[in-house]
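Batch manifest, entry 17 of 40.
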Amino acid sequence: MFRRLRTVGFRPWAAVAAFAAMGLSAAEPASSWDLAGPLRSRFDLTLEPGERTEVVAPFWFHQTSDSVDQYGLAPFFSVYRDSDLDRTLLDFGYPFLTYKKSATEYRWQLFQIFNLAGGATQSGDVTKRRAIYPFFLQQETLGGTNDYIAVLPFYGSAKNKFNRDEVGWTAWPLWVWSRKKDVVTHNFPYPLIHSRKGDGMTGWQFLPFAGHETKRLTWTTNLLNETVPMGGYDKSFVLWPLGMWQHTGIGTTNESRSKAVVPFFASQHSASRDWVTYGWPFGFSVADDRANGYKEYGVPWPLIGWSTGPAKEGFRFFPLYGDYHSPTLRSDFVLWPVYGHRKAQLGPVDRERTRWLFFLYSDIQLTERETGNQMGRRQDAWPLWTSRTDANGNHSLQVFAPIEPVLPNVESISRNWSPFWSVWRSESNPKTGAASRSVLFNLFRSDRTATTRTQSAFFGLFQHKSGPDGSRWRVLFIPFGGKGGTDEA
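Output type: C-alpha cells
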C-alpha cells in the first residue's frame, strides 16, 4: 500500500508537516494549542514566568523570561542576553569559541588560546588585551600608563599573569624576573637559580643543591582595616627535597620550627601543635594538635591512622575503610573511591554528599539545621540522569546527562548541549502547581497548570486539553469536544 502511495508522490513525513502547518497557522499564545512535537512546540515555562519555542528539536530554540532572552541552534551556537544586567553571552560550538560582555567589559576566546578582551577598569582607564596564550600577550590602555607586550620565549613583560603582579623575560628561561607586591625575584635560568628581595625578605637558591631565604616581621592591613602582623621566617634546604629546615611565625605568638631529612625523619613543633614522623612520608607519625583538641597517629601514614580527642575522632585503613567525625564534620568511605560520604556544617546549613565511584552516582543535600527543611538537592547518575530541587521545591529531571554530573551548574552546557541529548525532561513548580514532561524532544509532551492539563503526541496529531471549559481533543489537528464543541482557549 505504502509503495503505491510513494509512486504517486506521497511522503509520510511531508504529510505530518502539512498537518502541523494547518494546526499552527494562526499565531496563538503559548497557553493555546501550539504543539507539533519535534517539528515545532511552543509552551509556557514551568519554573519561572516565560515561554519557550523549539523547532526541529533538539536543534533550534528560543526562550524568553523576565529580562532574559536566549536562542540558539544546539549544539552549534547560542545567544543569551539579560537586559537588566546588561549581560550578553555568545557560544559557538562551546567551549570552542565564546564571547562574554558585562556592562563595559568584554572577552572573546578561541579554545582558551586566542583571547581578545577589554573594558573599563576600577580606576576609570580603558584597556584592550590580546593574547595567543602563552606565546603572545599584549595590553593597551587609553591613558598609556599600563601597557605591556610579551613574546615568549624571546622578550617582553606582562602584568597580572602567571600568579604574579608583573613578570618579564629575555630568552626565556635563561633570564626571568617577576614581582608580587613588593617582592622581586630574578631567575637565571628559571627555575634553577634565583635571587629574591623585598618587603623585608631576602633569599637565594641553586636548585637542587642549596637555598636560603629569610624575612623579618612586617605588618599589613586586613579587610576590617586592622593592622595585623605578618610573621617572619628563616628557611633553608640542602639537596632538595632531602634536607629542609624552617623557622616560621617569627615575632608572633605561634612560632614554628620544622625539619626533614628524607626519608628518615621529619618534625614540626609550635606552641599549638607538635608533629613527628619516622620514615617520612610513609612511616610512623604522631600529631598532637593542642589548638584543636585532638591527637592523631599513623602507622604507616597516611594509609593507616586514628584520631582521639573532643575535636576529632576516627579511624582510617586506606583504601578499605575510614570514618572520621568532629563537631562540624563527618566523613567516611568504604573501598575508596567506591563509596564516600561527607557531611559538613556551613553556617546554619548542613551540606551532605554521598558518592559512588566519584561521578557514577552523587547525591548532594542542603538542609536547614534548626528546622530540618530541605534547602536544595542534586542527584546525578552518570551518564543516565541528573535531578535538581531548589529551596522553593522546584524540581527538574533530565535523561540523559553525559557531562552535567562532571561539570555541574555550567550555564553554557545547559544551554548548548543539554537539549541535544535530553530525551526526557520533566519539571514541577509546587508554588504555582505547574508541571511539564517532554519525551523524545516533545514527541510526547504534557503540561499542567493549576487549572488546565494539555497532552500532545506524535507531532501533535493527537492532542488533549482539559480545564474549566471541559475536555477537548484534536485528532489530526481537527478540534472537537468542550463546551459547545468549540476550540476556544
